[in-house]
Request: fold
Amino acid sequence: MRILVVEDEKALAGLVADRLRRDRYTVDISNDGEEGLDNALSGMYDLIILDIMLPKKDGIEILKELRKEDKEVKVIMLTAKAELEDRLLGFGSGANDYVPKPFHIDELAARVNAQLNIGKAVESVLEFGDLILDYRASRIRCKSNNEDVGINNKEFQLLEYLMSNPDRILSRELIYDRIWGMDSEAVSNNLEAYMSFVRKKLRLIDSHVSIKTIRNMGYRLEYEE
Ligand code: CA
Reply:
């Protein structure tokens, strides 16, 4: 899942991003309000962490404009305690939660997890065909023979994205943006490399799920009984 952090204190933004990446989220950072709003409106994010005091455009304005377009994306506001009261207005305009500054980084991570786990709290696995992706154990398992194998973070994110969009063709760009981030320095052949790791692991557990390459279009997850 993908998170946007809109925060002008670069050290704090970096700290938040690093902590959330440890929980396997893909994280992008915007350091001012205008860029933050543009990115927030891209529809790419599952959750946005939004500071209030920002250069160019403040967090409350961003939230209001965002909610005109997108009612679904989760928003957690960050705010200094002193601002809280007169800013409470902002929470009426559609924030899902707020975290007063200064906060403990683990508390913010817990709030993020709580927001994103709503509705799937009971499910700790994702299924497609005979394939099971186990969130807690970071493993994939084949239902028909119970063979399983461990997967690393990127492989996990890749499979999670594919399994969440079964039978849909996902372009390289879409997958790349989703998993490596817009400003990633990763080289583009990383995607092929991880596709090949994941395919090997699917074969290793004898799953009938496979990743098909659709020429000039992208990739699609398929299941053949
Ligand atoms: Ca700020």
Q: What stands out?
A: The chain has two domains: 2-115, 125-223. The pocket of calcium ion is lined by residues 8-9, 51, 53-54 (CB under 6 Å). The domain at 2-115 is CATH 3.40.50.2300 (Rossmann fold).
